[in-house]
Amino acid sequence: MESAADVGSLPRDGQSFRRRLIGFIAIGEVGVLAAMALLIVFFWLLEPAFLSERNIRAILNVVSFVGIIAIGQTVLLVAGEFDLSVGSVAGLSAVVAAKLMTVAALPVTVAILGGIGVGALIGLVNGLIVVRLGIPAFIQTLGMLFIGQGLIQVVTGGYPVYPLPEAINTIGGADLAFGLGWSFAFFIVAAIVADFVLRRTVLGRNFYATGGNREVARLVGINTSAYKIGAFIVVGALAAIAGMFVMADLGSGGTSIGSGWELTVIAGVVVGGVSLFGGAGTVAGGVVGILMLKVVQSGLVVIGVNSNWQQIAVGVIMVMAVGLDILRRRYFIAGA
């Protein structure tokens, strides 16, 4: 990469083009939308079935589950932290709710609220330990990931929880439009509300301030600890809700719910322009990033790429996403 001196020695036209290019990349949503459009055309040219109604529906359905968590992860990243336990939280919340419905015979609504409460409680625990005890989020949430995975096996004995009440099957089988159900509807509404809150309200500005410069935020009277803990609770609750929708879709409290979602969510939102370093990004960008990641994964499946190479592709995208994040930070810091 060229140094500042190298850039300064470029002709004005070269500098202007380079800055416009970096500026384009730095705008998360725009750059990712353009890249995603090119990828869609690429996969369609290789395999026209990529744009079949069935495949589009499948992509949107998967995005709705992971996207719900991505909304919470975006809020948390903006506040300067991240959560690696979201997948196991989704799974644990789902199997707890399933057990409450079946073994405890509680009403469906009460059981679902209980499952969401588990997610919110885990978020609270993560937040308190990270903020109050000063344990890095990476260590705490990675540990919680393994705790959650272990508890899933303890709660279920290693077997899916079923049969579930008919009301759950009704939720999972709903077709509101284009074969998409309640999970997609919730995802869209939650994304719109969260994006508005972050962009347009004092609450959102305080989240950005907390993640951007915690010390300065404290000096102006923002309770940064409360905002960070609150963000952990939000992502925990949304992970639980995503787990409920997957449970309804499967018709059982499966032990694999949420497996592998942790890095997928972080990779997607960072691709969409949400900074790993806090204080930057939008919910819209995070959602677009998740959509792009799923487009890539689906496209590789459709054109018959080996599953091992699919994992490699996701890893490459993650590394590129972090690189773009660093590039965006340098661009804005330099005021280019």
Distance between the termini: 16 Å
Strand content: under 5%
List the domain count as a whole number.
1
* Uncertain ranges: 1-10
Fold and architecture overview:
The chain starts with a helix and ends with a helix. The chain is built from 15 helices and no strands. Helix content is 76%, strand content 0%. The chain has a single domain (26-334), classed as ABC transporter involved in vitamin B12 uptake, BtuC (Orthogonal Bundle). The protein is an all-alpha fold and 336 residues long.
Question: Which features would summarize this protein structure in a list?
Answer:
single chain; 336 residues; mainly alpha; ABC transporter involved in vitamin B12 uptake, BtuC; 15 helices; 76% helix; disordered N terminus
Write the layout of secondary structure elements.
Layout: H1 4-9, H2 12-26, H3 28-46, H4 53-78, H5 86-102, H6 108-132, H7 137-156, H8 166-172, H9 182-200, H10 202-212, H11 214-219, H12 224-250, H13 261-271, H14 283-302, H15 307-334
Structure, briefly:
This protein has one domain (26-334): ABC transporter involved in vitamin B12 uptake, BtuC (Orthogonal Bundle), CATH 1.10.3470.
